[in-house]
Amino acid sequence: MTILMAQRSWRDAALADAQAAARDAVHALAGLEKAVAALMTNLRDLGYPPVPGVIPPEPGLDSRRWHLEATVGGEVPPVLVAFWQQVGGISLVDLEGYSHV
User: What are the CB-based long-range contacts (under 8 Å, 24+) for 32-39?
Assistant: First the structure.
C-alpha cells in the first residue's frame, strides 16, 4: 500500500467513524517513540551528531492549535492533532550545533 492509499483509507475511515479513526491513530502513534529511538541509534552509528529525537508534548496545545487554525483559516488535520497530543514533536537536527557544511 502506498502512502497516498493509506492516507485515503484513513480519511475514508475518519469520515465513516471519527472516534474509531482517532483510536486507530493513537494506537499507531504509540510505537513511534521506539521507532524514533531506533532511528537515532542508526544515525549515531553512521556518525551523525546527537539530536533531540522525541520532544514531549507541552501544555497549551489547544490554544496554539486554535491560533494556528485562525491564522490559516482552516482546521488542523485530526491525525496531526493526535500526533501532537501523543508524541509532541520530533527533531532530527541539532539546532544548537547546526551549521552549514
Answer: 32/86, 32/87, 32/90, 33/87, 36/90, 39/92
Give the Cβ contact number of residue 81 at 10 Å.
Answer: 16
pLDDT for 38-78, tens place per residue? 998 998 899 888 888 888 998 999 999 999 999 999 988 87
Domain boundaries, the chain: 3-91
What pLDDT does 8 receive? 79
Tell me how many degrees the CA angle 92-93-94 measures, rounded to the nearest 5.
Answer: 125
Count CB-CB contacts under 10 A for residue 90: 17
Q: CA–CA separation, 20 vs 34, rounded Å?
A: 24
Question: In terms of DSSP bridges, do strands 89-91 and 53-55 run parallel, antiparallel, or are they unpaired?
Answer: antiparallel
Percentages helix, strand, coil for the chain (3-state, rounded to 5) are: 60, 5, 35
Here the cell at position 31 is: 510505537
Question: Considering the entire predicted model, what is its pTM?
Answer: 0.70
